[in-house]
Amino acid sequence: xxxxxxxxxxxxxxxxxxxxxxxxxxxxxxxxxxxxxxxxxxxxxxxxxxxxxxxxxxxxxxxxxxxxxxxxxxxxxxxxxxxxxxxxxxxxxxxxxxxxxxxxxxxxxxxxxxxxxxxxxxxxxxxxxxxxxxxxxxxxxxxxxxxxxxxxxxxxxxxxxxxxxxxxxxxxxxxxxxxxxxxxxxxxxxxxxxxxxxxxxxxxxxxxxxxxxxxxxxxxxxxxxxxxxxxxxxxxxxxxxxxxxxxxxxxxxxxxxxxxxxxxxxxxxxxxxxxxxxxxxxxxxxxxxxxxxxxxxxxxxxxxxxxxxxxxxxxxxxxxxxxxxxxxxxxxxxxxxxxxxxxxxxxxxxxxxxxxxxxxxxxxxxxxxxxxxxxxxxxxxxxxxxxxxxxxxxxxxxxxxxxxxxxxxxxxxxxxxx
Length: 418
Ligand code: ADE
Prior knowledge:
Bound molecules: adenine
CATH superfamily of the largest domain: Adenosylhomocysteinase-like
CATH topology of the largest domain: Rossmann fold
Number of helices: 18
Distance between the termini: 69 Å
Number of strands: 15
Radius of gyration: 22 Å
């Protein structure tokens, strides 16, 4: 069967638009381009099968093409029902990549696509939110046998992987791309900060200046969202469960308070915790009429949707990606992108120059796992510092600059205790 015959996508006729999108990001991803050049020469994945589950938009498509250029037979599926872009899928199929994905699949279809990506019996996987790994460790352990290892993209996925590892149940080596400096310092902070407001602004067409924005969670993503909200002129409140992060938010100039209080004050809420039900029934009861609710965490569990629905007398779509929930007392709350990752469900994800570093790390990490999987064993591995630093060096070079180098005298000084 050819790639075209195998693939399941919405509309092959959209390929031309998809190619334009991929060409645009390719032109803005110089670090990944350098890795592609290396891969073309070295063929690190020659004869191997790689299955990927990531948000299937243009930057991800370009990563898939880089891995293909390194010799792999690539299969790809989405990692969120709303983030797949059908034109991008069509272009990838034309480029010889097997795609199982479409925008807004049913829950059954979504899962079947993940399984199909695993049924290709890959040697290596790239996962986002531990979707593939969870299936491999629950319903389909039979498909573990060919897998040498993989790389995980996001905070939520790494929390799950570490839980599996702690329990002694992890069956493959997985490299934690999210924990690399060149991931969380830039992607989680500047990527999320910008893409969250890009998507909220285009979805709502409302002003941010003067509004009270409540940022729920002050990890690297929350820091980025709070920083950009402030830059847009909002009054920013942060809620946290970690006292140290709470002090950090306070020192960064934000108001810090419990959600019970913040719920009464916010005009726009952005959840970025990785946890569930951080906005829930008791909070809806006290929110202002017209409050906007957006989630930027991996799963659609941060804003408790069943409780919101139960407290509502009606629900309707009032604008693309905005659902109005009318509460029993007449107040209306607006949920963006069905409570799914707003920056990908109602936008194009992080900027290309940011994903350039993240996906350079993904590509290099996958190569590393392939070379070292026997030595790594079944555990969660941090991206080696040399790879992380190389991505930063390539990034600086692409900007036409560099950092200084220590002299021998300086190195000796730093190593001596006298
Ligand atoms: N584009 C592709 N993957 C993404 C991610 N994990 N976050 C933001 N934008 C993305």
